[in-house]
Amino acid sequence: MSKIIKYVFYDIIKNKIVLAYTLFLLLLSIGLFNLGGSPDKAILSLLNLVLLTVPLISIVFATTHFYNSYEFMELLVAQPINRKKIFMSEYLGVACSLSGAFILGVGVPILVFGASLTGLYLLLTGVFITFIFVALAFLASVITRDKAKGIGIALMLWFYFALIYDGIILFILYAFADYPLEKATLVMTALNPVDLGRIIVLLNLDVSALMGYTGALYKSILGSLWGIGLAFGLMLLWILIPILSSRRIFSRRDL
Amino acid sequence: MITIENLHKSYGRLHVLKDVSVGFEAGKVVSVIGPNGSGKTTMSKCILGMALPDKGDIKINGESVLKKHAYRSQIGYMPQIGKYPENMKIRQVIDMIRDIRKEATNVDEELIGLYGLKDMYEKRMGSLSGGTKQKVSAALAFMFNPQILILDEPTAGLDPISAEILKSKILKEKKKGKLILITSHIMSEIEEVADEVMCLVDGQVKFHETIAEIKMQTNEARLSRAIAKIMNGED
């Protein structure tokens, strides 16, 4: 399996997009840290930008990469290699190179300008989000053979998790404002990895004091080490469910 | 060596293979013929595990190959249209496959030499002509001394000299006791290399006989006429 991952890496490195992505993140983080204010403020702005761009770039890049690797996979399928191994190598190759770009682009500036526990959580969240959205991209790619349709599904998923979902939550909160919704919001948060990531980082910044009752509840549940563990556990489920189901679809279909 | 039992395969509503049962023995060159879309490629893809059958079984040396992968080290496959990662060079593709198949001990580089692929090693796969891609496919299929060779329209797109090289290679491997399955439309070529002919029509086996027998039954000296006679005779 490591041999195949090596060739996937090789292919991605030759493709300059990952390099451009690293530079983009590097410039973004250095710029935000130098804009003045405390490192905490910079991390907060960085968080909002990261939660918007990282899912988008991960999902679009992974989907196009999957379709472009069709020939490569077809070549390997006729060899004595398990199909599941081919699929997982593709996944790990893409997810690890994008995560590497993220760690370089965001991790190095954090280390230089404001190393803190919050910074570490931001980094971990970014890596998890990358793995989750690459998994979702692969799910979109195995559902349909048509490249345009696959990218369409991937973009819809991004829209849903990054924008529409928050709108739905706000609508529910507004419509049922008379009821106690703290627990319900907590559950709804768990159903969106982007929100989950946002809350993990926010709770470690002092701004959580501004989030009212729900914020207090979050702080009491997710503020502890146990809660952080739970949140990352949920993110892990967000990786495993899409990638295992797409692996299953991939190993049972015709090439 | 290969036994196919009651194989069914459909793509959506299209029923491509309908109850195909057939056996192939080692040391033979079997030519699979049939009109376009009769299921020839699908059958080879089923043997390779690239297409998954709906019903039925495929056995190699008595063992079912469905949902397995190790058996593919015994098969060399040359696809009809070779698809390769466009930005890899010929050398990289060959090195990669060798790297993946490291356990194979005796590597057969004869075709790489005969086709002069070494002189083109630094060319990108995307820039190659269809014929050159075919040469790479052929070299890869024969490289690991497989016991079974599945060649899907191997000479389509090859120039006459290269086709001749391939044909003599096929006969050479046959003498080593290998089973070689060839799908082809060129009757003269089949007559040259094949021992048996299997004909698929609409996903069903129409006949599977040795060439000598076909000629005897139809009283024809040439295979193309003999086969035309069988096909027309039943319509």
Percent helix of chain A, as a range, is over 70%
Structural class of chain A: mainly alpha
Q: Name the chain pair whose interface involves the most residues.
A: A-B, 23 and 27 residues
Termini separation of chain A: 20 Å
Structural description of this entry:
Chain B: Pfam families: ABC_tran (PF00005). Chain B: GO terms for molecular function: ATP binding; ATP hydrolysis activity. The complex is a heterodimer of chains A (255) and B (235). Chain A is an all-alpha fold and 255 residues long. Chain A has one domain (2-251). In chain A, 84% of the residues lie in helices and 0% in strands. Chain A has eleven helices and no strands. Chain A has helices spanning 2-14, 17-34, 39-68, 70-77, 83-114, 117-143, 147-175, 182-190, 193-202, 212-222, 225-251. Chain B is α/β, with parallel strands linked by helices. Chain B has a single domain, classed as Rossmann fold (3-Layer(aba) Sandwich). In chain B, strand 4 (55-60) and strand 5 form a beta hairpin. In chain B, helix 7 crosses helix 8 (223-233). The A-B interface holds A 3-4, 7, 11, 14, 69-72, 74-83, 252-255 and B 11, 45, 48-52, 69-73, 75, 77, 79, 83-88, 93, 96-97, 99-101.
